[in-house]
Amino acid sequence: MEKDKKKVIGHIPSGLFIVTSKDLTSHKVRGFLASWVQQASFDPPLISLCLKPERPGGSDIIDKEEPFALNVVSEDNDEFVNDFCRKGVDRTKILENMPHIDLGEWGIALKEAKSTIICKPRNVIKPGDHHIVIAEVTGGMFLNEQSHSMVHLRNDGSNY
After folding, report:
1. pLDDT value of position 140
2. How far apart are CA 96 and CA 86, in angstroms?
3. Burial (CB count <10 Å: 0-12, 13-18, 19+), residue 34
4. From CA 143, how far away is CA 121, in angstroms rounded?
5. pLDDT at residue 88 is higher than 80
6. Strands 46-51 vs 115-125: parallel, antiparallel or unpaired
7. What DSSP character marks residue 104?
8. Core-most of 1, 25, 70, 91, by most CB within 10 Å?
9. CB count, 10 Å around CB of 43?
10. How far apart are CA 11 and CA 31, in angstroms?
11. Using CA atoms, how far apart are residues 21 and 18, in angstroms rounded to an integer?
């Protein structure tokens, strides 16, 4: 059982999301790919988002409790998901070149996404190498309602 524990953790399905936020000083849009997201409450509507503290853009959500947009990736979004997976790419440039809707302080809604969920952090829990952000859902919009959310399964529960 011990030797299989990391492998079986990878069997837990998750969605894929592009989190966008805006630097409140420079107004530049930041973004990163996230897969550890879950609804956490009905009333008020809350989500949980697990972030590595040093993730560019993620650290501001954790430390400064900056608002963000959670773009739900659809099965049709393989191309831009692959762009976000590459190491060393300038994700700000990728986002600037994608069709989007400016959401002010929350970042951007990606027009290719299934939907966008507007979130305001309320609490951060620091249990391990990832921090859990509990965020209130303050709004949302449908972009491609008929598309299907992308589901992600990992080969191993010890890495992405």
Report:
1. 97
2. 17
3. buried
4. 23
5. no
6. unpaired
7. G
8. 70
9. 5
10. 26
11. 10
Distance, CA of 12 to CA of 34 (rounded, Å): 15
Q: What angle do CA 17, 138, 95 make, to 5 degrees?
A: 35
For 103, the token pair is: 């959401």
Q: What is the identity of the amino acid at 41?
A: S
The tokens of 152 are what? 């992600």
- Tokens representing 125 are 């829990």
Domains of the chain with CATH codes: 12-152 (2.30.110.10)
Q: What are phi and psi of 24, to 5 degrees?
A: -75, -10
Residue with tokens 């598309």: 147
Q: What is the pLDDT of residues 115-148, one digit of tens each?
A: 999 999 999 999 999 999 999 999 999 999 999 9
CA–CA dist 110, 114 (Å, integer): 9
Lookup: tokens for 116? 């966008």
* Closest C-alpha among 53, 68, 49, 71 to residue 123: 49
